[in-house]
Here is the input.
Amino acid sequence: MAAGMTSAIMNPVALPIGPKKLQAKLDELAAAGIIVPDDIDMELFANITGMGSTKARSGKEMEAIRAANFLTNNDANGSEWIRTNKDPNASTGAGGRGREGGRRRRG
Here is the structure.
């Protein structure tokens, strides 16, 4: 039963924040005297103001299901949990990926 809960049937999506709500928040901040740069990334703006995201993402139900799958060892390595909860603004450096380029040769 637990493995079947992650099917596509139970994959609710949180609706993205639209441009009207973003503009309303920008107007509210301007009325309060807060200056927001004109070229700000709207995804970043939505995140830092606590509005959510401008992109469609999984809802809280799917987040709870992925957490349960990890805790009950249905996602043994936690790869699905990590993939969906990775910070989108984090650097994509090579840290933690191990060696690249094959085996090291001894001379």
